[in-house]
Inverse folding.
């Protein structure tokens, strides 16, 4: 086993450990072992593999995050709109027919499968 500058250890053709330093802390690999997050016999390659995000997993995580953020945003907007209405107040509404051209109306009928 040979140690290269910076705490990287190599034996044969394989990297045994490589410190990843964040915010002045020790190697994440070493820290994970010290905290009992991974078994002491876990190799550095196994540790990196656990940290790796596979393309399918990334897609799922992104979709979940977007859905969660969208739901929060919609809920906040609805709550704000309800709050702005002022409970107990009545509002006059007047029906306003949509200003659609015959072409647009025919396209809507076509999409809905309605024959006028």
């Amino acid at each position: 086993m040979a140690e290269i500058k910076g705490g990287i250890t190599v034996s044969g053709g394989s990297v045994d450990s490589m410190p990843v330093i964040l915010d002045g802390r020790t190697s994440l690999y070493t820290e994970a072992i010290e905290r009992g997050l991974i078994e002491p016999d876990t190799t550095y390659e196994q540790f990196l593999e656990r940290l790796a995000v596979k393309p399918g997993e990334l897609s799922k995580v992104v979709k979940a995050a977007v859905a969660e953020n969208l739901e929060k945003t919609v809920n906040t907007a609805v709550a704000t709109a309800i709050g702005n209405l002022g409970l107990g107040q009545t509002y006059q509404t007047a029906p306003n027919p949509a200003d659609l051209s015959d072409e647009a109306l025919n396209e809507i009928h076509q999409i809905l499968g309605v024959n006028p």
